[in-house]
Amino acid sequence: MIPSKCINPLLAGVSLLFLISCGNRKEPEPTAKKPNILFILVDDLGYADLGVMGSSYYETPNIDRLARSGTIFTNGYATCAVCSPSRASLLNGQFTARHGLTQYEGAKTGQAWKALNRHTKLLPPEYGHHLDTNDVVLPEVLKDNGYVTFFAGKWHLGGAANRSLPTDHGFDYNQGGYEKGGPYSGGYFSPFNNPYMEDRDDEKGMSLSMKLAKETSAFIREQQDSTFLAYLSFYAVHAPIQTTRAKWKKYRDKADRMGIAEKGFEMERVLPARKYQDNPVYAGLIEQVDEAVGSVLKTLEELGLDKNTIVVFTSDNGGVTSGDNYSTNQLELRGGKGYQWEGGLRVPYFIYVPWLAQGGEKNEEPVSGADLYPTLLDLADIPLRPEHHADGVSLKPLLEGKEIKERPLFWHYPHYGNQGGEPVSIMRKGNYKIIHYWEDGHTELYDLASDIGETTDLSAQNKTLVGQMKQEVTDWLEDMDAQYAEVDTLWNEAAWKQRLADHKTKLMPKLEQQRKAMLSTDWRPNEDWWGSEPVTGKQ
């Protein structure tokens, strides 16, 4: 067990909230009023997609300041490598095998999956298609304890048809949340054409991230004399990625100064993967999120609410290295969104508590998105609900410099991801992680303390440990009554191998061409840069 350590000194000149240095810390008392909560969730933001987490390409000063004000959990995990399952876990405090929403909403299963001609060896099982209305979730408990609750942004946990909008799960207000998983109707610039959010004439060219921040700030101003939960769930940085001409140029020029590699992709097991952080559109989209986060934090400061508002910041899964827009690279971590490796599961994970002197301390304890539900109840002095958040534990002791009992973390993904992920079950216990593959039954073992990039499979020389950990996973899956993929008895192995070959010989050269075009000085996506500026003719 690793106690939290105050290892990151407070940077001078930080204006976010009021900060207390790590040394000789004296913790101010919380006010008598229950704390407000600002929960910030970014879609598809990778572990290494922030300056504070090691990126030298992306610029995120506001998020960096937030992280350096609170506690940085360096082993913070999403409960799934794709979005809907982990989003459900954030709200219900359960691992995915327990709540049953094991795949992103809308994905095909069984023979419908086979009809897509993916040529996979297994057929993925059915799964829950929306957040279970029988689950007692975080906003409902907070609402029962006097909180006014607000949701803005991506929901992707059901819609009006299955009575699973945010307002069906304890949120008093909903701005922009429904069954869609991306900004497909209107893109990242106004008008957004979202049926649950009003487009206004004075917002022409505004980014979607700033629009969501604007609505969140308006709610905070309206409820400044109440106790509130503001759940700000960005659609960014999900595909299709878009940014302004100015931000694209800024990061295109920065990539040029840093040195543009001749080859930008390499093959993973299934799909090509981006090798470097050099995507100027993605970088601009991240900066738009950072500006939006900064604007909401500024609202808290201006209203004097910063001293009694807990701020949580995380992502729903790893950054997209393969599939979608092939947007980013996770530096020393292997893989990204959809993958079973650390790049798909490990995420930015920060908690700021204004009455604790944190100062950016780093805590190495493995923690999960399922832990945020009980943690926030505990910090708000609300009795925990272990019968509901059955897999989450309160991290309040860690935030106070204490320890929690070591426990395993589990993942179960009996599906195939659009980004190259395979049907697997995973357990991390201590520094060891096993990945059990359901296609052929083999198991990989990694020591994350010495091999965070998961380059060396230790299973052959640690058969006893692998056997013990596999048994724990098996027992857990039985307890969860988990669903499994089934063998396709008509699997066409030749067609599968041809698909892999096409990814290497056809898809990868196309991606290289697109990357070079985006990094050229005269690149232009369309006339109005996705709606971020007026059409003035070609330049």
Description:
The chain is an alpha/beta fold. 27% of the residues lie in helices and 14% in strands. The protein contains 13 helices and 18 strands. The protein has helices at residues 61-67, 83-92, 96-99, 110-114, 138-144, 208-222, 245-258, 280-302, 342-345, 372-379, 396-399, 463-480, 493-518, and strands at 36-42, 71-73, 76-77, 122-123, 147-153, 173-175, 227-233, 265-267, 272-274, 309-315, 349-352, 361-363, 367-368, 409-413, 424-429, 432-437, 443-447, 486-487. The strands form 5 sheets. Strands 6-5-7-1-10-11-2-12 form an 8-stranded mixed sheet, with helices on both faces. A hairpin with a 4-residue loop joins strand 8 (265-267) and strand 9 (272-274). Helix 6 (208-222) packs parallel to helix 8 and helix 7 crosses helix 8. Mean pLDDT is 93; it is low at 1-30.
Rg is: 22 Å
Average pLDDT, rounded to a whole number, is: 93
User: What is the general shape?
Assistant: globular
**What portion of residues is helical?**
25-40%
Secondary structure class reads alpha/beta
Low-confidence parts lasting 5 or more residues at pLDDT below 50? 1-30
How many DSSP E strands? Answer: 18
Tell me what portion of residues adopts beta-strand conformation. 5-15%
First-last Cα distance: 59 Å
Largest beta sheet: strand ordering: 6-5-7-1-10-11-2-12
- Biggest sheet architecture: 8 strands, mixed
Annotation field: number of helices:
13
**Oligomerization category of the chains in this entry:** single chain
